[in-house]
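As a warm-up, study this chain.
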Amino acid sequence: MPETDYLRVPQNRIGALIGKKGDVKRSIEKATETYLDINSEEGIVYISPKENMENPLGVWNANHIVKAITRGFNPEVALKLVDDDVYLDIIKLTLFVGKSKKALTRYKSRIIGKDGKTREIIMDMAEVDMAIYGKTVSLIGGLKNIQIAKEAVEMILNGSRHKSVYGFLEHKQQELKLKEFKSVVGIETEEPIEFKDGIDFDPEDFE
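Now compare it with the structure written out below.
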């Protein structure tokens, strides 16, 4: 039986985690076969497995769904993490642009783009969901898709022009389609992918 887990969450996202009359909390519990004990005063969520839990990853999935909601995703998108092939990755903007509020605002604006265009292009071409919240950019999707979207975001953070980022995304999109085609006809193209879960809570990310 999986053990109880816990994580800290920002106070200003507890309402989104609980939902109207507790509907979000219940949805997470049902989807992951867990119980959530939310301590609103201390900002801590305890995650316990239900009896006769069938999915051994239920607690792990619930942990990541909670993290996704606290990073700005709506619950419907966050619940995609129930699928074992869907992952969450969080990019800390301060690692690229420092802690200057002016710099953070400027680069967040570059990632979003005029009228949200750049953000939408990344999401569409890499086939991921994205949330920009506090000092982080978070991604939900398959491993390969996240890698592509993450590289596109990092290109922007490293000063690349939007045109170059769009060209990169188009190239990667074509590569994915080619690999998908080859897999359908039985040609081996897969390479091992390493995914690291570096998404611990940091209060400064939400300021």
